[in-house]
Amino acid sequence: MENFNNHLLWDILLAHAGHDVTIAVYGDPNDPIDVALECDDCNEVLLDADLYTLAARSDLDDADC
Ligand SMILES: [Zn+2]
């Protein structure tokens, strides 16, 4: 698999398509210690901003991979 991380995120999000997902804020709402994307249907954390960093895709305009 040439781009493991993107495929993994794809699979994680796709598995919860149509589910009830929430952005959960932990700690002080004005100065949170953590923000996470959680699936309420599965009681599962999909993305934890304390653990993961997302960036805009940069491969769309690039011919080289
Ligand atoms: Zn789910």
Key features of this structure:
alpha+beta; 65 residues; 1 helix; binds zinc ion; 3 strands; 3-stranded antiparallel beta sheet
Your description of this structure?
The chain has 65 residues and is α+β, with helices and mostly antiparallel strands. The protein has a domain at 4-48. The protein contains one helix and three strands. The chain has one helix at residues 4-14, and strands at residues 21-28, 31-39, 44-48. It has a three-stranded antiparallel sheet, with no helix packed on it. A hairpin with a 2-residue loop joins β1 (21-28) and β2 (31-39). The longest helix has 11 residues, at 4-14. The radius of gyration is 14 Å and the shape is flat. The model has no long low-confidence stretch (mean pLDDT 84). The protein binds zinc ion (ZN).
In total, how many beta strands? 3
Helix content: 10-25%
Please give the radius of gyration in angstroms.
14 Å
Roughly what is the average pLDDT, rounded to an integer? 84
The termini sit apart by 13 Å
| Overall 3D shape | flat
Indicate the proportion of strand residues: 25-35%
Can you count the helices? 1
Largest sheet: 3 strands, antiparallel
Oligomer: single chain
* Uncertain parts: none
The secondary structure category is alpha+beta
